[in-house]
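Incident review: delayed structure delivery

Summary: a single-chain prediction request sat in the queue longer than the usual turnaround. Root cause was a stuck worker, restarted by the on-call engineer. No data loss occurred. The affected request and its eventual output are reproduced below so the record is complete for anyone auditing the incident later.

Affected input:
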Amino acid sequence: MKKLLLLATAFIAITASETNAQPRKGDWMVGAKVNPMALKGGYFLSNRFIAGVDVMPGFSYQPQNKNIGFNLGVEATFRYYFAPKTGMQAGKFYLFGDFDAGYELQYSHNYFSKSGGFSGNFKTGLAPGLAYFINDRVSIDAALRTNLRGNFTRNWSHINTNPEFGVQIYLRGKKNARPE
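Output delivered after worker restart:
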């Protein structure tokens, strides 16, 4: 399912994207990533810096244990591309740094023992990464994210590092729209 979503997003982006101008201040970014699955959105504050939000829905079902679970995470994200001041161009690789911080709400229920409930964790993470601009409006990226999770009642001892892969689409902002 995740691979299908990623491929569909990439196909739509490549076939429907406008070219002739790289992303710049005032433009928007939308996208998706896997591991964990998330929908992304952001706004270019400069030609190289994006502030945005990641939304991470999740679902799990374990028939052998009769467990069901849902989770929803929301994170503020900040991404800086190490590129020339003029911005990114098609056909090139760019390094980036990504910082995020947010909250994840989880619900689980075991139908066998009739137990479960809500829990939540604060999360913050850093990710160095590499983005390749397929054309002037679409990029694919890979990053290695290190996360720190915890809540106020326990210590922040849960640290993990995971690879991430994503597709981003860059849309023109109102100020950057082409005259008709």
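Verification: The first helix runs from residue 2 to 16.
Action items: add queue-age alerting; document worker restart procedure.
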